Amino acid sequence: MRFLLTLAAWCLLWVLCWPLALLALVLAPLVWLLTLPLRLVGIAVASVFALLGAILMLPARLLARL
After folding, report:
1. 20-51: per-residue pLDDT in tens?
2. Can you tell me the distance from the alpha carbon of 33 to that of 41, in angstroms, rounded to the nearest whole number?
3. Alpha-carbon distances, residue 7 vs 15, 18, 19, 20, 21 (angstroms)
4. Would you state the pLDDT for residue 6?
5. Which residue has the higher pLDDT, 18 or 21?
6. What's residue 14's pLDDT?
7. First and final CA of the chain: distance in angstroms?
8. pTM for this structure?
9. DSSP for the chain?
């Protein structure tokens, strides 16, 4: 009896979840393409902050070598 209940649950899960799996398979590349510009902006902003930090710390680094 327990085996039949487990089998029925797996069959129900397969019937309900395969469309979601196909939808995720189709939408994942689209989401990646949509978020690509945001990631590029994030990389650019992080680079600008790193450059500003390096410029601001340059006098201290030069004085530390003396």
Report:
1. 778 878 888 999 999 999 999 999 999 999 99
2. 14
3. 12, 16, 19, 20, 20
4. 84
5. 18
6. 83
7. 83
8. 0.56
9. -HHHHHHHHHHHHHHHHHHHHHHHHHHHHHHHHHHHHHHHHHHHHHHHHHHHHHHHHHHHHHHHH-
The residue type found at 59 is P
Token pair in block for residue 22:
């196909």
Length of the chain: 66
Handedness of CA 8, 12, 15, 19 (dihedral sign): negative
Question: Cα 51 from chain centroid?
Answer: 25
Tokens of 15: 């019937």
